[in-house]
What does this fold into?
Amino acid sequence: SQQGEEDPQALSIQEGENATMNCSYKTSINNLQWYRQNSGRGLVHLILIRSNEREKHSGRLRVTLDTSKKSSSLLITASRAADTASYFCASDGNNNAGNMLTFGGGTRLMVKP
Amino acid sequence: NAGVTQTPKFQVLKTGQSMTLQCAQDMNHNSMYWYRQDPGMGLRLIYYSASEGTTDKGEVPNGYNVSRLNKREFSLRLESAAPSQTSVYFCASRGTYNEQFFGPGTRLTVL
It folds into this structure.
């Protein structure tokens, strides 16, 4: 398997707290993407960070990328109960004719009201 | 715009039966993908189509075939279903900035 790894596998926090999820990948990349999946639904694209970027923000989301360590993190600030979902990172590798994404195993986030 | 649609939403098969999962997108995307997701895991790529008329194997293609019928539609066929193919199947298409748009999924159980 070429899947990356995500850490932690599960995270439970209180509403208002910040949630941090980490992702490691194996090959050099064009970009790294984060997706969200609500229970029983398809994945929804959240944010994309290119290999030449180190940090990116979108609303309450902050993504960092460290290509030297082949790792990324997703920070959700001021979490809400509605943020409860699984979060997946996906790496878009170089030399990838089909622009295929390699997904991590996901972090299950529960935000308690 | 409906985005990416998939049919059926649920399906139960007996071992050895065949079926085709349908996928369509209305975003005029060139590339389309089929994934499977097993409990507690991420997605694994079964097949993809970089453009109309082309298809290629992904990470787990055994037991599956695909057809890129036209630019909109990309179908996945199980010729002889096996219990190991019990999974949730997602179709996706690739957007301008390489992000992928996913359908709602098909939950398949093979008895």
Notes: Chain B touches chain A through 28 residues (CB under 8 Å).
